[in-house]
Design brief:
6 helices; 57% helix; elongated
Length: 172
């Protein structure tokens, strides 16, 4: 039987983990067992640069942390090795993008188990689909391109209308 000190430490860990999960914009759970130390180091570096908090978690602590939350369904994949990546708010899809890219490159050695975003739990397939969406900068670029094209069309149309009106006034 664990001592009171160890139980208190574990309760604190569960509380911190629960706060991290529920306070994050999104998160992804992965099975990391098949990657090398070098690959893990590179992955952690890329995640850190993107503002993603990545941590290996014990399944029992994760189980306790998600109980009575919107993310209780995460419990269904808590077997084997588990690591959790959570995103703050800058780019809520950063973890999904990076982890899905690594999973694809690993050819089955590293895999996405499940994810969540804004109170909704998502399957590994849904996380993969989300990872393919453009980031904030990409979406802004697409929006700017669309607006620029529309403004150019509007300018051409107004110019043609002005020329027509001037031609009509000149003829009268």
């Amino acid at each position: 039987m664990p001592s009171d000190k160890i139980l208190a430490q574990k309760k604190e860990l569960v509380s911190e983990l629960k706060e991290k999960i529920t306070g994050a914009a999104s998160g992804v759970l992965v099975d990391y067992i098949g990657i090398t130390v070098e690959q893990d180091t590179a992955l952690r570096k890329e995640l850190r640069a993107a503002g993603v908090d990545y941590k290996v978690v014990k399944n029992t602590l994760m189980h306790l942390a998600v109980q009575d939350t919107d993310y209780a369904e995460l419990d269904t994949v808590l077997t084997g090795s588990t690591a959790l990546a959570v995103c703050g708010g800058e780019d809520p899809l950063a973890a999904a993008r990076i982890l899905c890219k690594y999973a694809e490159k690993s050819k089955g050695k590293f895999s996405v188990k499940i994810g969540y975003m804004e109170g909704k739990v998502m399957s590994a397939d849904e996380v993969t689909a989300l990872s393919k969406l453009p980031g904030r900068e990409g979406l802004l670029s697409m929006l700017l391109s669309a607006l620029t094209g529309n403004l150019r069309g509007l300018a051409v149309g107004l110019n043609a209308l002005a020329e027509k009106k001037a031609a009509e006034e000149g003829a009268a």
